[in-house]
């Protein structure tokens, strides 16, 4: 997932370095906030569009026998969600999974229980980071 901001071609002269630095800080904050929102929402059993689809009866029984919650939260060992990281590139923040194995888990989980995106309300919170305050 990418959160991007494009800069205009306006000649900003001496302000360019300051703007670039502030943009980078805002992108770092945006990436961290996006990650935090996804993790908190997922932990509460919520996906991008609301509650997660229930586990199958057999998987629910297996989780119950292991003493794990039966409400979907995409958490067994914490490895997948713990592998979610963020980084800033030139003009965007990116969330990704640092392990190929965890990336595969996230990909398949996201197909059944979409979690690796932001809903409209979350996107609005991110946009607020980029509003100019005078």
* Strand residue content: 5-15%
Number of helices, counting only DSSP H or I runs of 4 residues or more = 5
Q: How many beta-strand runs? A: 5
Pick out the low-confidence regions: none
Biggest sheet architecture: 3 strands, antiparallel
Helix content: 40-55%
Number of domains: 1
Lateral strand order in the biggest sheet: 1-5-4
Return the average pLDDT rounded to an integer: 88
What general form does the structure show? elongated
Radius of gyration: 18 Å
State the secondary-structure class: alpha+beta
Please report the distance between the alpha carbons of the first and last residues. Answer: 31 Å
N-to-C SSE string, H for helix and E for strand:
EHEEHHEEHH
Relevant terms:
5 strands, alpha+beta, about 45% helix, about 130 residues, three-stranded antiparallel beta sheet, single chain, about 15% strand
């Amino acid at each position: 997932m990418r959160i991007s901001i494009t800069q205009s071609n306006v000649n900003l002269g001496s302000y360019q370095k300051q703007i670039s630095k502030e943009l980078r800080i805002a992108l770092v904050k945006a990436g961290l906030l996006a990650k935090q929102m996804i993790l908190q929402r997922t932990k509460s059993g919520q996906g991008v569009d609301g509650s997660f689809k229930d586990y199958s009866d057999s998987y629910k029984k297996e989780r119950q026998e292991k003493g794990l919650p039966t409400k979907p939260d995409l958490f067994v060992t914490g490895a997948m969600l713990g592998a979610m990281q963020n980084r800033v590139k030139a003009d965007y923040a990116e969330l990704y999974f640092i392990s190929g194995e965890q990336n595969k888990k996230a990909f398949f989980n996201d197909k059944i229980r979409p979690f690796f995106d932001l809903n409209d309300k979350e996107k609005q919170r991110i946009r607020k980071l980029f509003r100019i305050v005078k």
